[in-house]
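This week, look over our next protein:
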Amino acid sequence: MKYCSKCGNQMQDEAMFCAACGHKAEGSVQTMPARDELPVKKKKTGKLWKVLLIVVAVIILAVLIGAIVFLTARAKKTGEYATYIEEAESYAEEGKFDRAVKELKKAIKLSEKDEVAYLLLSDVYEEMGEYDKATEILEEGYEITDSPKIKKAIKKMQENRDEKPGVSGELVAEAVLTEERTEEAAAEEIPAETGTGESEETPQRIMEEEILDLYDDFLKGNTSACVSNDVTGNFDGYMDANNRVAMQDILEMLQAEYLDYSGSDETLSSIQYSFIDCGKDGVPDLALRFVGLDYYCDDDDSNMTFVIRYEDGELSVCYAGFHYARGILELYHYGLVEYLGSGGAGAMYDSYSLIGEDGRCKEVYSASHNYGMWAGEIDYEAYEECFDYEQENDELCIATYYIGDGIFHTYELDYDYEEECLSFIQLLEEKGIVFCSKEDIDLLIKSNMQDNGMKEECMEKREIDWLTLHESSYSEYVGE
């Protein structure tokens, strides 16, 4: 397309003259078409935006999924950590320090940046008398966590070490006993030290140190003890009266009688010891506990407890008792022995004995408690006359107490079946059975204790602070 060079009129390409002004086409010019005459190319923007939106959505979704997975894993980890801590605290309260250590090590492995497990593990090691390990775990924890609390605990432990040098000896309890004796002397205004500032070597103190040294020799297997006539139980000849037994003998007996039949793990979980004061006479007695016999089932906490006593330069085994799932035995600091046992679904047994200052174990009382239909054991004929065996009179209880040479009975009613219970009691009384009140039973028990020289103050349930014995020569009997 061309245009007239004179008037600018649009001309046909083949025209010779401008149709508007007649100007000859020789001077016309050819120009580019106008902008609005050019074909327009449309931009393809829609598909690009869709792609961008999809990419952004995928990224957001991935972030959300990652956050959910992270938070879920973190919550699970926190829950497991808390469980390990709770179980460790529970084991520690029960004196099962080895198990507490295992749980706390699991907690540290799960969350090594958390300070709580390090602090608790240090406390457990202290309870076990392993002061070096207690310090090491704190130092390890501080290096990893930089915790001010752990730093403070390390400083406190170092101060205690400075105040009590040498406490980490083999018989840690000796230091504890010495400290208790010093406190008692101060309370009674008895001078514990001479004017020169040195400890007074009294004959009693010297004797106590000799006794503790002898106990230390027994724990190491360097000496033996004579079995007292009062020790009873099925020990297959090992614990016959006047036999002499050492630690190795006791372990061999436990291996033969229990561990060989305990399943896959034929070793003890721990050997524990403590110094107690039977009869409150101030003379230390050695208490031993062999834990992990698995008598009833695996991990049933069954154990055998012994008390070793010093008499006239010799050691004697004055008590042996067995604890398992259906027969719970607990020894306390002043020689009280508590036993709680099950005789089936409706029968319970309990007894209390005291190991006196002479080393003899005397029974305070024993009792059976029969509930519901088991109460009929006292007289089935009378029971069947008053009750239908299908009645759920579980609150009815007939208790029989054995105190000294006497047998005494008490009862508790099931008030849902009050009329039947009262008829049953009346029939029993007509047959000559005499029932006592609980107040009467308490007075009978107190009288029996007085008659047999048992101290009422020794009935206190002061728990024993058990320590774990670490002796390499017994490693074949003790598991990891």
Summary: The first strand starts at residue 2 and ends at 3. Confidence is low (pLDDT under 50) at residues 27-41, 164-199. The first helix runs from residue 46 to 93.
